[in-house]
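Quick sanity check, Large ribosomal subunit protein bL9:
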Amino acid sequence: MEVILLERVAKLGQMGEVVRVRDGFARNFLLKRGKALRATEANRAKYDGMKAELEANNIKAKGEAAKVAEKIDGRDIVIIRQASESGQLFGSVSVRDIVAALAADGVTVSRPQVWLDTPIKAIGQQKVTIAVHPEVEANVTVTVARSADEAERIKRGEDISTRQEDQDAAAEALAAAGEFFDPEAQHGDEAEPAPAAEEK
């Protein structure tokens, strides 16, 4: 089906363009949400009549979106999840989790606005793009950790693998035990007894 876009649609086209899309996508998404009109002669004339108004509304919405994007761009969202020692999550962090974390932080976005290719399945940081408006984007950093302390360490760039922590703790314990049981340290200060002089 051919449609006339009433706003910019990502990976499809700009406002006013006539594009060919699948019927289901046109009916269930573009037409239903008011993002397009069927490309008939009557609708082409209708679009020409409302073009100036649509462009003015788009400029206004874009300006408001730029203010929102300025507030959230560069934010760091922390999501606490359980994970294995190797850092693999028991489950995953999805778009829904990111939307909920942003809402808890006072930012309201809808799920289609959050661009996440695949769910996050490991501890660490990931950049996520928020499409505040079809022409305005903001980037946030999502930090996934097992605790708030671990999240702070991830932000500082520290190695947070528990295996590394265990190795460091074992090395410290071994060094302390070595000092405690060092035979040189225990007997080093004692003078050796002088051999008894033989009587002639």
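Posting the structure with no commentary besides this: The chain has a mean pLDDT of 82.
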